[in-house]
UniProtKB/TrEMBL annotation:
Keyword Transmembrane attributed: yes
One Pfam family matching this protein: DUF247
InterPro entries per UniProt: DUF247_pln
Keyword tags: Membrane, Transmembrane, Transmembrane helix
TM annotation in the entry: 388-409
Protein name per UniProt: Uncharacterized protein
Length: 417
């Protein structure tokens, strides 16, 4: 045994067992990273959570809140019922479903790698059971909502608590887009290939569900769902984020953010805004931003958008302007909505600001005084036919007056001979 004597000033000396300390520390060393390269499902960071705690309303998906059994006890029964309905319709046994999953050990290992925590309290069987039950629940939910079943195989919605409550779909859409409530996409794909009623794109099936529950997504998702991007998707939140940010590829990003004048100021300077109808939905924005902040494989498009809107909205006046012109859809009071984007981007990092070039061009236009004067002229005097008519009449009257004055002066200084 090797001992090290340490002399401590005014406190005598003490002996340290070097070998014991070495063994103790060596036992805790790791040869691999605590996070896998595939990790893409995280807890929302406390810096973002502190502004507004995120929690499920009706359903827990995946391992993060799996232990909250009392809170989601009723939904647990619905999950078991949905799983049984899925198996009966496909005429497949539970054993056949489990055996149909390619390499169950690899399946479990790969699924765990998607999460930022190890969940060692769940053994292999418990973890796989959770993946199967939650995954099949989602697939049955999406297929029931899509109305793909023939009349002879219609499920009875009267005894389905998720179908006969009008508000339930909105609650489910909220919960299923929480970052902590995600399942790996490959899990859904594996189960879908084994249980689907009608072969088709899983991407379209999922998007159709969320469009039916969140109508504001239709504007962004309709084009995206006509394509198959299943191989690139990590989970449902990633799919919805991708569907929304697809049009942003045409904007060139820069490293730093650029500030802008407020929306009403830009409008008064002649800047035109394009109709987009983006819902001010703080939980959905916050979870998409949290995903971008945590995951290395996605750029900062949603975070950049929130930062852009934070620049444009400084007061309730800007909210009313953007809402009246169908740029945003606001379900909050104007005062509350004016604070949403400021809270969303607080404590966030933007490495590449996706709207940098756009903001630079807008600022360049805004700083030209002539553009502001021309915009004021159009707004005050050329905004409708009556104002144009009045302006033309006033101009003609002014010209005639000048001509008459000129003629009078000429007559005075050059009288007829």
């Amino acid at each position: 045994m090797t001992e090290l004597t340490v002399v401590m000033e005014d406190h005598g000396s003490t002996n340290i067992d070097v070998e014991a300390l070495e063994q103790r520390m060596k036992a805790k060393l790791r040869s691999d990273s605590p996070l896998s390269a595939q990790c893409c499902i995280f807890r929302v960071p406390e810096l973002l959570r502190k502004h507004k705690p995120e929690a499920s309303d009706v359903v827990s998906i995946g391992p993060f809140h799996h232990s909250s059994s009392k809170l989601f006890a009723n939904m647990k029964d619905v999950k078991q019922w949905y799983l049984n309905s899925l198996l009966l319709r496909k005429n497949i046994s539970l054993k056949a479903l489990i055996q149909g999953i390619d390499s169950i050990t690899w399946f479990e290992k790969r699924a765990r790698d998607y999460y930022a925590e190890s969940f060692n309290h769940l053994d292999q069987n418990q973890f796989i059971e959770m993946m199967i039950i939650d995954g099949c629940f989602l697939l049955e939910l999406f297929q029931r909502r899509s109305n793909i079943f023939p009349d002879s195989d219609k499920v009875n919605v009267l005894n389905d608590p998720l179908s006969n409550m009008g508000c339930m779909i909105q609650y489910l859409c909220h919960d299923l887009l929480l970052l902590e409530n995600q399942l790996p996409w490959f899990v859904l794909e594996s189960l879908y290939n084994l249980t689907c009623y009608e072969r088709g794109s899983l991407t379209r099936l999922v998007l159709n569900f969320f469009i039916s529950g969140l109508s504001s997504l239709a504007h962004n998702c309709n084009g995206y769902r006509n394509h198959s991007h299943d191989n690139e998707i990590l989970h449902i939140l990633d799919l919805i984020r991708s569907a929304i940010v697809v049009p942003l590829h045409k904007f060139e990003s820069i490293e730093q953010e650029i500030t802008l004048p407020h929306a009403t100021e830009l409008f008064e300077a002649g800047i035109q805004f394009k109709r987009s109808l983006v819902d001010i939905n703080e939980p959905l924005f916050r979870n998409r931003i949290a995903f971008e902040q945590c995951y290395h494989g996605r750029d900062y498009k949603v975070t950049s958008y929130a930062s852009l809107m934070d620049n444009l909205i400084a007061s309730s006046k800007d909210v009313v302007f953007l809402s009246d012109n169908e740029i945003i859809r606001n379900w909050l009071s104007a005062e509350d909505a004016s604070q949403v984007f400021s809270k969303l981007v607080n404590d966030t990092l933007i490495v590449d600001f996706c709207y940098g070039r756009l903001c630079a061009a807008v600022n360049k236009y805004y700083k030209v005084r002539w553009n502001q004067w021309l915009a004021r002229l159009k707004r005050d005097y050329l905004s409708n036919p009556w104002k144009i008519t009045s302006l033309v009449a006033a101009f003609i009257l002014l010209v005639l007056t000048l001509l008459q004055t000129t003629y009078t002066i000429q007559q005075y200084y050059s009288p007829p001979k």
